């Protein structure tokens, strides 16, 4: 079960002749801030009004303020890692978030 989520840029490396793509995904974290799940497909901004669309676009732009991630195969399945450090993906839990 996730504790919080945010938007992150994920580098999607192409297979064979496919090109590498950078996409924005929703990433879920546990209470300690470790990435535990992510959306299978990239997200797209939407809104019922032009203003809602602008607001959603601004929220998704927060992904560019965080390190880029990539999916890697590990002993226990697939995990997200920081492309610069190779370390597991983490995010700072929101203030006031505690275990119940």
Describe the structure.
The protein is globular. It has one helix at 50-60, and strands at 4-12, 21-29, 35-38, 69-74, 77-82. The chain is built from 1 helix and 5 strands. β4 and β5 (77-82) form a beta hairpin. The longest helix has 11 residues, at 50-60.
- Mean pLDDT reading: 92
Please compute the radius of gyration using only Cα atoms. Answer: 15 Å
Q: Kindly state the number of beta strands.
A: 5
What is the structural class? mainly beta
Q: What's the number of helices?
A: 1
Share in helix: 10-25%
Spans where pLDDT lies below 50 across 5 or more residues: none
Strand % is 25-35%
Describe the largest sheet. Answer: 5 strands, mixed
Indicate the overall shape: globular
End-to-end distance: 12 Å
Q: How are strands sequenced across the largest beta sheet?
A: 3-2-1-4-5
Note the run of SSEs as H and E.
EEEHEE
Task: Explain the layout of strands and helices.
Blueprint lengths: L3 E9 L8 E9 L5 E4 L11 H11 L8 E6 L2 E6 L18
Parallel strand pairs: 1-4
Antiparallel strand pairs: 1-2, 2-3, 4-5
Please provide a brief summary of the model:
This protein is mainly beta. It has one helix spanning 50-60, and strands at residues 4-12, 21-29, 35-38, 69-74, 77-82.
């Amino acid at each position: 079960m996730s504790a919080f989520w945010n938007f992150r840029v994920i580098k999607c490396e192409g297979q064979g002749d496919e090109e590498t793509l950078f996409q924005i995904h929703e990433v879920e974290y546990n209470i300690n801030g470790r990435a535990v799940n992510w959306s299978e497909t990239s997200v797209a901004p939407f809104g019922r009004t032009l203003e809602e669309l602008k607001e959603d676009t601004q929220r998704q732009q927060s992904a560019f303020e965080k390190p880029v991630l990539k999916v890697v195969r590990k002993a226990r399945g697939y995990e997200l890692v920081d492309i610069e450090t190779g370390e597991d993906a983490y995010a700072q839990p929101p203030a006031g978030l505690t275990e119940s």
